[in-house]
Amino acid sequence: MDTLSRERLGLVLLLLLHLSTVSTQMPTGSCTFDEGFTQCDYQQDPYDDFDWTHINTQDVPYVSPHLPHGSFMYVDVSQYDVGEKARFQLPVMKENDTHCIDFNYLLSSPDGSSPGTLNVLVKVNKGPLANPIWNVTSYTGKDWLRAELAVSTFWPNEYQVIFEAEVSDSKAGFIAIDDIQVLSYPCDKSPHFLRLGDVEVNAGQNATFQCIATGRETSNNKLWLQRRNGEDIPVALTKNINHRRFAASFHLKEVTGQDQDLYRCVTQSERGSGVSNFAGLIVR
């Protein structure tokens, strides 16, 4: 082999090595928890009641039969009081479009009762925590289920996803999370909202937000308009625009200056949730 051929072969090998390294890197915000919690660039919320716990079942002598095997984050509800909450948060993210976050979860207990509630919250521009955009309270068993979040945000806004476990009055049980993935492409099962625009009206008039999403609206989906302060407004009307897009309308009657705030659209099913950007209601 001559010198030129050896140089070309070396360049090809370097390129293959680089591609292999890139393909095995996890996207920013993703984590399998195989290397522990601290390697994920996630944070426990310092203002909650207690912390989520990381476990690798290979490293402990006893594992409850109501937990799966592997490395994941969990809450043992028997250790805490009713109503107490634990939260951990993903890094702040800024994407100029809709993309997808999916994750594994389970809620398990010895008697098949609900151990509590798993909530997902999305905080925008370091603002206040609004109500959850997705939650589950029912017993799921020790097998992982998967859900996805279709988050629509647009430059220059940034957002942060927060996982919250809330303890019920169950005497024993577990809430667990694993394999969080931040994907650069749209979700498969959750609708994606198009950009929500501001609404401007005079005081005393009615205001209408219209949320348009890609995906088919179904009777199993819950739709609502979420105010930044936490108030949820039920949907007034939904209609299919075509086989790939639907619209949802939300009415606020005889608005005043106290109604002026930021609002966003949310849709939820057992498979996941979609959430739009915040838009302003401007009352003149």
Automatic annotation (TrEMBL):
Keywords: Disulfide bond, Immunoglobulin domain, Repeat, Signal
Domain of life of the source: Eukaryota
Record domain MAM: where: 29-189
N-terminal signal peptide: 1-24
Domain Ig-like: 191-276
CDD domains listed in its UniProt record: MAM (cd06263)
SUPFAM superfamilies for this protein: Concanavalin A-like lectins/glucanases, Immunoglobulin
PANTHER family registered for this protein in UniProt: PROTEIN-TYROSINE-PHOSPHATASE (PTHR24051:SF8), SUSHI DOMAIN-CONTAINING PROTEIN 1 (PTHR24051)
Record protein name field: Uncharacterized protein
Organism for this UniProt entry: Pleuronectes platessa (European plaice)
